[in-house]
Amino acid sequence: MIEHLADVKFGLVLRTVVHLKPIQVWFQAWRRVQKVVESHPKCGTGELPEFTFLNVAAKPKGWNDASVELLWRYNLHYFDYLHSGSSADATWRNLVLRWIAENPKGAFPGWDPYPTSLRIVNWVKWLSACGSQLDVDADAIVRIEASLRAQTAWLMGHLEYQLLANHLLANAKALVVAGKYFGSSAWYGKGMSIYRRQLPEQTCGDGVNFERSPMYHAIIFEDMLDLAERTGEPLFMDYAAKMATGMKVLTGPDGKIAKFNDAAEGIAKAPADLLARAERLRLQACETQGNKSGFLRKEAGKWVLLAKTGEIGPSYQPGHAHADTYSFELWKDGKKVVGDTGCSTYVPGAIRSYERSTKAHNTVVVDGENSSEVWASHRVGRRFDRERHRREFTLTQAGLDGIDFLAGKGEHDVEVRFHLPPGVSKEEVSIDCPGSLSWTTCDFAEGWNRRKPGLCAVYFSRLTFPATIRWRIR
């Protein structure tokens, strides 16, 4: 859905929607019709227990408390906390039954397709795992399963074809899990059909998810592991193996995910945990096809480089993309010494705009503009032009050397930016780059809604294009 349509320029909207698939355009229109003709009752407003999501603790007044951001409210409706083991079964039973009573069909935001998909999976896993030990009477089980059937039927009519990408995969997982639990071939078959079409498209040849977000890659990798264990389908075993390979590409020597695009610590499971689970499944090794995702990984002595050289994301769904082409992260002796500033929020505003901007990444900024036209919270208009900027990396045991080739005509203001994460001092990293050097502080995302100051070296020059810039890090 285009956000704040009345407040943006027609050309920007056109440059955004021209990349959409026809099915997305059709379902964008159809979803608007559905919203008009369907009933959308209000959900309950009574005070709920305190929860901590996205590093924010709150005691919400009902299921749609606008005092917390929408993503926080979505987390409330996911019911991931059913598996935390921090409360008695009766507590969760009562909360599940309360959700059923206070969220009538179609109520916002709980019945949005994405939280509905995650909740279906969580409720089924909770019921299945607890079994006879669950402190729930037979009548409550009947009510919970009746609600699950209603939610799954609703989801079947609200699959997110207008978004595709990870949202449609989440819908498919819910259908497969609910279909297997209830013995519904219609739900199971629909979910499998979506996966058979989407997984080949959404998985690059090197096993990396095509949205090119290490965080979402880890989330979908966990889904593949869940489904491989739950269904035994060869399809999920195969793609779990592929995504295990991709997970290794996107994990730094410090054991953490790289911070390209929308990626933050504490949302997805840790790479080591996911890879250990994959190993227990005895997945067959799979062949990869180069760096089809565009992620360049090199190792030399004590140095490790991971660079983003490919597209910003799938052309028709770059919602989690940043204007970060040719940005990179660099480690020495297992410590990150040059890093991406990461992602800490989806709320539209100054922080979200900065974190998606070219200035927030280790690359070249020309005339103060973003290399791709990121806007709103999850939109991209004009895309990066490879005819105008090309970068080469050379990693040796001495360090990293880079060359930027800038095409075009006339004079331009050029910045080459290098971000040093919190805890890395100027004295630890020697950067040699032409231009006037200035040091500034910059915020690094340290998880959702958490930022910590680091340093940024900015090399400024006024250059006549075409131009070549050579730099090195030691």
Please bin the fraction of helical residues. 25-40%
β-strand amount: 15-25%
CATH architecture of the domain at 294-474: Distorted Sandwich
Topology as H/E string? Answer: HHEEHHHHHHHHHEEEEHEEEEEEEEEE
Question: Number of helix segments?
Answer: 12
Mean pLDDT: 94
How would you sum up the global shape?
globular
List segments where confidence is low: pLDDT < 50 over at least 5 consecutive residues.
1-5
Distance N terminus to C terminus? 46 Å
Which fold name corresponds to the CATH topology of the domain at 294-474?
Beta-galactosidase, Chain A, domain 5
**Largest sheet, spatial ordering of strands:** 3-4-5-6
Number of strands: 16
CATH first level of the domain at 294-474: Mainly Beta
**Protein structure class:** alpha+beta
Radius of gyration: 23 Å
Q: In this structure, how is the largest beta sheet organized? A: 4 strands, antiparallel
State the oligomer. Answer: single chain
Structure described in brief:
By secondary structure, this protein is α+β, with helices and mostly antiparallel strands. The chain is built from twelve helices and 16 strands.
